[in-house]
Amino acid sequence: MRPPLLSPKTLLLFTSSNSSALLVKISHFSTSQSSSSHYSSQSNFSARRHEEESRNVRVSVWWDFENCNLPAGVNVFKVAHTITTAVRTNGIKGPVTITAFGDVLQLSRANQEALSSTGINLTHIPNGLVL
């Protein structure tokens, strides 16, 4: 009797630097144990199953925009698209929810509107509040 396969987990690292580039890194890890012979004998089935499972993965991105600032000069309208593209590139096809946390008053009104209009949920945490 084989142990049940556990869902792979994904870690999304969203970083910025002083440059105008936005870096999105996705790392996968899994707690499942599998043998390569199992995959080779059922590769077609596994591929279909993986496809189906990838559509069921719900991704929730939590972005602390105070400690991971938008780089100067970045097109704010492309932030959500960049994150979603990184997720899709890694084979995850389920829904993506992005929530930005921090003191919203530190963002310009234009950036607040741009982020919100692209589907990013803004959650205001007043400056100095520790959760």
Automatic annotation (TrEMBL):
Comp. bias (Low complexity): 30-46
Residue ranges of coiled coil: none
Region of interest (Disordered), ranges: 30-54
Gene Ontology MF term list: RNA nuclease activity
InterPro entries: Marf1, NYN
Domain NYN: 58-127
Protein name stated in the entry: NYN domain-containing protein
Species in which this protein is naturally found: Quercus suber (Cork oak)
